[in-house]
């Protein structure tokens, strides 16, 4: 029997409730993993502390919102069979997370000080979000959270030794958050 090493996986969501009478269920997932879920043949479900693979029925994965989807597993064809899975966490293999980190590894910019070409020093990066490949920095500026889309077109200089990120933000972007 093949043992599944739970350390090789990470949680991405939870089974919320049955959906309909044919065994579909609603999952809530973390933002940013939509594309990876559509590529999966199976999902790992945590049951009694262990991970169990559940194979996704053909074309049964349907997004309702970016973080909510309905899905059906093979051999689960009724709401009664699905109910015991409600509340269970869904896991993906760490390779998926590594792929995302390889292409969008911006977490090292946390706590960097951001400078704008026109406004000067804005403040520190306090949060970084990845919305399906669109990286957005949250910068603390004058006690306001300013959201700045990170694009190579905006970056004028990165000074790792000083932990500084220099940008040329679009006109009016910063002012939107100060009004």
Annotated CATH topology of the largest domain:
Elongation Factor Tu (Ef-tu), domain 3
Strand content: over 45%
Q: Gap between N and C termini, in Å?
A: 62 Å
On the 0 to 100 scale, the average pLDDT is 87
Q: Could you give me the name of the CATH homologous superfamily of the largest domain?
A: RimM
Number of helices: 4
Give the beta-strand count: 13
Helix and strand string, N-terminal first? Answer: EEHEEEEHEHEEEEEEH
Strand line-up across the major sheet: 4-3-7-1-2-6-5
Helix content: 10-25%
Structure description:
By secondary structure, this protein is mainly β. It is built from four helices and 13 strands. The chain has helices at 34-38, 79-82, 94-103, 173-176; strands at 9-19, 24-29, 42-47, 50-55, 62-65, 68-71, 89-93, 113-116, 120-131, 134-141, 144-149, 155-159, 164-167. The strands form two sheets. Strands 4-3-7-1-2-6-5 form a seven-stranded antiparallel beta sheet. Strands 11-10-9-8-13-12 form a six-stranded mixed beta sheet. A hairpin with a 2-residue loop joins strand 10 and strand 11 (144-149). It is elongated and about 60 Å long. The chain starts with 8 loop residues before the first strand and ends with a helix. The model is unreliable at 99-104 (pLDDT under 50).
